[in-house]
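User: Hey, my collaborator sent me this sequence without any context and asked if I could get a structure. I don't really work with proteins. Can you help?
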Amino acid sequence: MIPEGSSVHPYAHCSSADMSLLGKRAAAGRKLCSLVFTGCQEMLVRQLRTTVPVFKFWERDIKAEYGRERKTLPDKQMVVDGLKELKHEVGVWKDEFWNKFTKEPLFLVRPGEVDTVFQLNSEAALERWIVTADRDNSDGQSQGELVLGRHGKAVLRGTLDTTPPKDGSKQRAGYCNMRCLRPQKSFKRDGFFDWSAYTHVVLRVRGDGRSYMLNLASMGYFDLMWNDMYSFPLYTRGGPYWQVSRIPFSKFFLSSKGRIQDKQCPLMQDRITSIGITAAGVSGPFQLEIDYIGLEMDPKHDEEFAYEMYKTPSFIAGV
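Assistant: No problem. I've predicted the 3D structure and written it out in structure-token form, which is a compact way to encode the shape of the chain:
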């Protein structure tokens, strides 16, 4: 018997063979626990994961619903391409840092003068724009393109077809849209157009009599706001003459995924992600010639928002 108060190890009476057996059982138990923990962890990750990871770092994809296939590069190739891109991004960061000290202050914006943002008169200028139609997404048969016309100006042209596909997936079709690229800061950070010092968008266009839609995207960080769009009609007249359209920012109304929202709010002019023009509605050919898109500050324009804000119960207007 072991006397009370002694500090003898509980396995002191075991032989070496027994100790070896106990060690093997303990190792097997630890391995089993590790396998169970790893399996639970992988199961939890699979449950939480909604998209297939492609890159080493997470990046959002606002077009994930279309199921685009993204090419995966080997790790070595990614390192080589990353080092090449790093040199370019450092140069962009230097320019970005220097422009903070040389940028023209907002209070020097001259009333009544149009500051050109996009001058569409060269092939290099057209590379900053993306043109899409419902055919690109298998939603219809419309097509369009943005080319340099014979007069040296950009021409958005194509054909609209409002016949929906016969597979029953869509009820409406027939659109073509041009949109500028979103501004980016150094190291691929998302940027914004800051047009808070201006009151009007100014366009010099020559149309075909159609009514187009001028869109200002204000995409936020959360996916609920990725489709926020502020729009206003761009009326054109047919004929050989140019027209200058001045549209106040206060006239733009909020829509999301093509639906005008019941709860409206003014556009945040310092957080605009892109500007675009959409042709839709009537089947047939269309053509819109664009000289420039600019901004103007009118000190006499004091309207904040053109649409009345009705306070309705949430069960009536809850979107």
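In plain terms: Confidence is low (pLDDT under 50) at residues 5-12, 50-55. You can pass these tokens on to your collaborator as they are.
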